[in-house]
Amino acid sequence: MDTESRLVLVSGARIDNRLELFDLLDVAHSERGHTPDGALILKDYQKWGPDCCDRLLGDWGFALLDPRRRTLCLARDHHGNTSLYYHQNRHFVAFASSIKSLLNVSEVPRRPDELHLAIPGGVAGVRLTDILRRR
């Protein structure tokens, strides 16, 4: 959590272009050796907002709550190496890095959404949580 901006971040990340990001974000050389990847993602988001993902290279996934914008940003690396599953309904959003964890939330349905499955080509590249019936 960044106390000044009130941003809250949960991440699993290995950022491969740290040196490039340090330069783009004007991170002091004295801070670079001990700046964790999560802190780098926070700085990236603070500068570029949701477009920050365009600059991240590596295996990463994160959830970032921005209370000032009233948004929750869920993102994962462009190659899909890091899993990110979610379920959303009118009352809440749940997310996890494994389907097993997400399905431990009692409000997340465990039945396939048959309508979604019936759409031609609708399943290509779709995660299991995308085809679960929404309440």
Outline the structure in words.
By secondary structure, this protein is α+β, with helices and mostly antiparallel strands. It has two domains: about 1-80, Glutamine Phosphoribosylpyrophosphate, subunit 1, domain 1 (4-Layer Sandwich); about 85-135, no CATH class. The chain is about 25% helix and about 25% strand. The protein has helices at about 20-25, 30, 35-50, 100-105, 115-120, and strands at about 10-15, 60-65, 70-75, 85-90, 95. The strands form two sheets. It has a three-stranded antiparallel β-sheet with strand order 1-2-3, with helices on one face. Strands 4-5 form a two-stranded antiparallel ribbon. A hairpin with a 4-residue loop joins strand 4 (about 85-90) and strand 5 (about 95). It is elongated.
How does the SSE layout of this entry go?
Layout: E1 8-15, H1 18-24, H2 29-32, H3 37-48, E2 58-66, E3 71-76, E4 85-88, E5 93-96, H4 99-103, H5 114-118
Antiparallel strand pairs: 1-2, 2-3, 4-5
Query: In the CATH scheme, what's the topology name of the largest domain?
Result: Glutamine Phosphoribosylpyrophosphate, subunit 1, domain 1
Task: State the assembly state of the protein chains.
Answer: single chain
Helix fraction, binned, reads 10-25%
Q: Using DSSP, what is the number of strands?
A: 5
Which architecture name of the largest domain does CATH use? 4-Layer Sandwich
Strand pairing plus helix content: what structural class? alpha+beta
Compute the separation of the termini in Å: 32 Å
**Global shape:** elongated
As a whole number of angstroms, the C-alpha radius of gyration is: 17 Å
What's the number of helices?
A: 5
Residue-averaged pLDDT, rounded?
84
- Name of the top-level CATH class of the largest domain: Alpha Beta
Helix and strand pattern: EHHHEEEEHH
Count of distinct structural domains? 2
Low-confidence blocks of residues? 122-135
